């Protein structure tokens, strides 16, 4: 057999030159093993080379001038405390007793110098290297996994354990050599020992405090297959990290749940607020149309605009919740961009009112007339930024400029809104996109909830766009926005004029709503749109179906949540009966999310209108259906 290609380093610590020469001779050209030998003649010198150099195996003579017998092994270890040593001892005079003691003290093998030959030496070195390698690997594995193994003999009361057990229990191995004493003095060892001797289960979790004051969670396990054997064994595992991770995961779950509950709560409250807002806004709108003196007119106007502000806040909160829940639906609709930009300019001018501000508004001629984008969201973004610019500036020019930017794969609508107002500090710029954040200290004069920009940036993100801000305190701010668009290929839809004349509309309408004020608002609004409309009323879905058996309606305006039979069930019944094919059913909802969830489409509704009604929307709806 050829020796393997690996060359092993061997340290021989031997004071007798003749013995050293014999070892050298047996290792030279050994047919089992290739070695590189370093020879030292005292334990001290041997330890010194060990500190500088790593050896695969040490051949240690047990009668040296500076060390004698078994203590040589522990002395060598104490001189090189950070290195595990692979030791084979050399004994003389067929001293097998000494050899076995050396094994118990941790040597891998013992060799009788009197009986040595090349084969015995080669084989012993190879076995020792292999065995030591496996033990080191096991040790390293235990260290990485933080698992220690132990063994206990019930009859001899002998306890053996891997080094990791002592590390995990935070005790010194030497202190446990006398078990009775160790159990008395070492609390952590006593816990383990109590489990081993009195165990009622195979597994047990316990907690110890280490000498540096940390808490450690340990899992002790005994092999159940050996329960009735004299010798049992098992492991101890450090599960602190695992428990901490599980705890973190649990906490993350709980906080996720809490955030969800909070968002749902806000959404529910806001939703509940929309129903009475419908009443307030609807009724003030109707009241404005009655004969009032100037003072009454002003008071009603005040109520109406306060109501609209409140509705704006409620809508903002709903939008924010939608953004946070990722429920914001972005529509792709073909729009006439120039028309929209013109409308927006008018709205911005109206917002400026009589503030001392100039508006510089420009639309690059490179932007196509028609683009595909979510119109409402675009308006929302721009009005928010322009609104802030107007709010936070007392003089100067507000500049809004739209342009188009094309890359090889994508077209973007870009615009900026620039003001010469109060500006912001650099360090505040990334805070302003967080909800309910207002950054300037002296914002007393400026109304706001701190929601606008977080919603705006959420909408922009949902549209796959980008927003950036530059600002200098006292000089002004510029917000840049980039939104992906496409160029539509379909024909432009007929635009409904905002000055719709609906006074001649005729038809029979069934209004279904359980809420008396909502019913009043809807009925009076319909009457105001056209006095020629015939309106019947039902307070739930079941009543509506009864009325439909008796009369022919062009339109049913159906509330969704009602007692007895809700709007969904009633509409499913209407749509599954062919005799009502000609009747259009439009859902009325205060739930701003319903429109996005699209389940109204699956139910078969022909359209949806959100409460509080926008008068213009209602007019358009009636014009389209009753034409
Ligand atoms: P709100 O305007 O309701 O306070 P926003 O979310 O729209 O809430 O804005 C958050 C904060 O960012 C404002 O309170 C203000 O401190 C700051 N901010 C936004 N726009 C401007 C601007 N154009 N100039 C100066 N500060 C601004």
Descriptive keywords:
627 residues; alpha/beta; 5-stranded parallel beta sheet; 5-stranded antiparallel beta sheet; binds adenosine-5'-diphosphate
| Total number of strands | 24
- Count of discrete alpha- or pi-helical segments spanning 4 or more residues: 19
Strand order of the largest sheet: 2-1-3-6-7
Shape: elongated
Strand composition percent: 15-25%
Largest sheet: 5 strands, parallel
Gyration radius, rounded: 44 Å
The N- and C-terminal alpha carbons lie at a distance of 104 Å
Sheet/helix structural class: alpha/beta
Q: Are there runs of 5+ residues with pLDDT below 50, and where? A: 491-497
Q: Which molecules are bound in this entry?
A: adenosine-5'-diphosphate
Overview of this protein structure:
This protein starts with 6 loop residues before the first strand and ends with a helix. The chain is α/β, with parallel strands linked by helices and 627 residues long. It is built from 19 helices and 24 strands. Helices cover 43% and strands 23% of the residues. α2 packs parallel to α3 (71-79). The protein is elongated, with a radius of gyration of 44 Å. The strands form 6 sheets. A 5-stranded parallel beta sheet has the order 2-1-3-6-7, with helices on both faces. A 5-stranded antiparallel beta sheet has the order 9-8-12-11-10, sandwiched between helices. Strands 14-16-17-19-18 form a 5-stranded mixed beta sheet, covered by helices on one side. Adenosine-5'-diphosphate binds next to α12 and α13.
